[in-house]
Amino acid sequence: MKTHRALIAAVVLFALAALSGVIALLFPSNTLAMRVFGTAITFGGLAICALGAAIVIEKRRVVPLMYAAVVSAALSFCLWSLLIWDIVRFYDTDIARTAGTLTTLSIVLPIIGLLVLPRLTMSIARWTRIITISSLCISALIINAAFWELLDFDRTEFFVRAMGIASVLAAAGIVCTPILYKVQSMRRDGAELRPIPIRLTCPRCAKSIEAKQGASNCSHCGLRFTIKVEEPRCACGYPLYGLASDKCPECGREISESDRWLPPLDKTPQS
Question: Is there a contact between 138 and 158 (Cβ–Cβ < 8 Å)?
Fold first, then answer.
């Protein structure tokens, strides 16, 4: 399914959920409306999780993990539907616990996939991602241990606090990671626009001019143009034109002198 079709389908699902919610509020005694509302909300939420996994699959990152997220979302929806429509009683705790575990997986796995999607080169961004993913996993483990009553009740307060701390760190990391990626991109874009002198002939007035990378114009006729130079880069993507150091300032990798692409010496005789 194309991404835009999936987004349209998600909008339709939320519209149906909103409509069923309105009906449920207008007719609070209508059990059918409540069940339709619960089913639509459940399907819409899990569909968003599956869409997030599909985005990561499209980028060919952690594909097996994302397929596991899609399967978990489908299975959890089936189990929740059985419970919502009273096909299986809610007091069947094993079904409810299994549905809760699958729902947790369908939420956490796509978030992890989206977090590993960007290529982070800044140390603070990489550590933020590591802490975020670790906090997500810890929080999910504690929640599922509570589902299955595997926790030591004598230490319930400790686990609740641990889950709270992990959840706060995970939420902060989910917000900060894309911000740090944007900062990284801004630094890289700024480095790409360094003035690289270029000699060329103006296509309008045919006069020889000296321009620089990026937006420029002819000094004779005023023709505006943009020049983009494909310069050598480090493995992390940082441009290496005119690099004086033997290490990449972005990731710290050693750069040989032949890869630094130093500007040529000015051979014009000085008076």
Answer: no
